[in-house]
Amino acid sequence: MLDGKKSLFSGMQATGTLTLGNYLGALKNWVTLEEEYQCFYCVVDLHSITVRQDPAELRKRARALLTLYIAAGLDPVKNCIYYQSHVSGHAELGWILNCFTYMGELNRMTQFKDKSSKHSDNINAGLYTYPVLMAADILLFQSDVVPVGSDQKQHLEIARDIAERFNSVYGDVFTIPEPYIGKVGARIMSLQDPEKKMSKSDENPNASIYLMDDPDTIIRKFKRAVTDSDNQIRYADEKPGIKNLMDIYSAATGKTIAEIEKEFASSGYGDFKLAVGESVASVLKPIQTRFDELSKDKAYIDSIIKANAEKADYYATKTLRKVQKKVGFPEKIR
To answer: Number of folded domains in the chain?
Structure first.
């Protein structure tokens, strides 16, 4: 609880380009939370360097992501939108929590195994202790709730375990975070492999719709989307490609699945794919326009970066000082 509100933390990595899945599954719903929660939305650049990055490109993408947060509707005054690397408390608390995390717990993390297989030439200690830094991200702001997808549940569980272990030794220091259970965002799947989630790191550019794709590109990608051979717009598990397109169209238009099935009862896949593409292009257009406007206003974005780094650092320092005192570090002479 911060300033009379429950605290919520989430973030996205400053690598790749945000997809339609990131928007419809998470970002769109974040916009509705600012009145109920004290929200911290992080541009997760510390985590990004577990994989080698081009420095100039990382800086460019981090700024673009922060700008996209605002363009997508997050109020940078009501929400704290900041760079993870600008708040040293993340790394400082991460080290302390490393000393309260067991090797066996980290060995069980499935994401480490997945990323190690993809980056076998760079299996570094940061990749291994990634969940501890994520725990620090969450616990630093006494987060009551954390929106998590199915691929992040393990990380929230270990954050809870670490917090409970620390509290059992030193008393009531950390809030034990709960998963955010609210309006469920659409789970958007790959256009080329509808059995897996749409990803900004997919090597196939036709598999994902990126938030900055122009209308022609969006429509072309939907035309190439994998479907099946029966040419019926019907929502069924045995039709994952069409099911995914219907989910996207529903999220973009607000229409129910039943309404969509009725609307396209006499249409073929070609007409339906075009309709989905046009609806998505329409949803993304105002975000793209706002992004372009914000990107040209360097002074404004710089002021948001500065103000929100200070705000995040204020709350982070409150927690960090408490933790440092509990573990026995000498107080700074100020």
So the answer is: 2
| DSSP SS3 for 178 | strand
Identify the CATH number of the domain in which residue 258 sits. 1.10.240.10
Q: What is the pLDDT of residue 256?
A: 93
- Residue of 5, 200, 223, 318 marked catalytic: 200
pLDDT in tens, 274-292: 999 999 999 999 999 999 9
Asked if 258 and 305 sit in the same domain, the reply is no
In a domain, 232, yes or no: yes
| pLDDT-above-90 percentage for the chain | 70
269 part of a folded domain: yes
Catalytic one among 6, 28, 197, 243?
A: 197
Does 164 fall in a domain? yes
Q: What's residue 236's pLDDT?
A: 92
Question: What letters, b where the CB count within 10 A reaches 16 and e where it falls short, cover 221-243?
Answer: bbeebbbeeeeebeeeeebbbbb
Query: Range of 211's domain?
Result: 205-293
Number of helices followed by number of strands (H, E) in the chain: 13, 5
Query: Is residue 78 annotated as a catalytic residue, yes or no?
Result: no
Q: Per the domain annotation, does 76 fall within a domain?
A: yes
- How high does pLDDT run on average in the chain? 91
pTM of the predicted protein model: 0.89
Banded model confidence at residue 127, pLDDT cuts 50, 70, 90 = confident
Do residues 15 and 51 touch, judged by C-beta distance below 8 A? yes
Residues 242 and 124 in one domain: no
Are both 239 and 282 inside the same structural domain?
yes
Asked if 115 is an active-site residue, the reply is yes
Sheet-wide strand order for 37-44: 80-83, 37-44, 6-13, 145-146, 178-179
Of 6, 28, 115, 239, catalytic: 115
